[in-house]
Design brief:
alpha/beta
Length: about 200
């Protein structure tokens, strides 16, 4: 058993897939990449890294998203507020995690192309620094997913945003340098989606 696999058994994953996709103009949770939806790809990357608990927060397009995940061992949690912020989905998801989780990998669904290698690198560092926020980093840019340690779950339930938590000098993220372009690639617009398809087909 590798260090990342050993750690994965204690780390949960939270996929944020509740948004209305207004800038995309259609449900980005359901965009197809090589025949699979983004939400399914996001689930698969965590399962491939050995995680045993994956929670998907749904909202807009709930039925369609849940149908995409029928064959995956995941929990779906509904965010009932149509105008909520990302932090609201994070809070809902954290409340559904098992009490034994040592931390949680948080991934917006539009970053679903992140590599298994990036996830494994985060898991290895979490094993060494179980009380630190950890994120992929390249140049001056932070990426996804972000590891939130269980010791900070209670604080996440109180802050107005994750950025607010990051700005706290006691909780500055630990950065992991990665070469994975997809850890920093958000699919928010049709142009982003087209760019992703072109890059993948090169």
């Amino acid at each position: 058993m590798t260090k990342s696999t050993e750690c994965a058994h204690r780390v949960s994953a939270l996929i944020l897939a509740a948004g209305a996709s207004t800038r995309m103009g259609r449900p980005k949770q359901l965009l197809r990449i090589f025949g699979k939806s983004l939400v399914a790809l996001a689930v698969e990357v965590f399962l491939s890294a050995g995680l045993k608990e994956v929670v998907v927060v749904t909202g807009h397009f709930r039925k369609e998203v849940e149908k995409e995940l029928e064959d995956y061992p995941v929990k779906c949690v509904l965010n009932p507020c149509s105008n909520s912020q990302m932090i609201d989905s994070v809070r809902l998801g954290l409340k559904r995690l098992s009490l034994s989780a040592s931390g949680c990998l948080v991934l917006p669904v539009d970053c679903a192309l992140v590599s298994v290698e990036t996830v494994e690198a985060l898991l290895i560092l979490h094993r060494r620094f179980p009380e630190r926020i950890i994120r992929p980093y390249s140049g001056k840019r932070g990426g996804h997913p972000i590891v939130i340690p269980s010791c900070l779950f209670a604080q996440v339930l109180r802050v107005g945003s994750l950025r607010e938590l990051f700005r706290n000098g006691d909780h500055m993220p630990l950065n992991v340098k990665v070469k994975d372009r997809w850890a920093f690639f958000d699919m928010d617009t049709p142009k982003d989606y087209e760019s992703a398809l072109k890059l993948l087909n090169k």
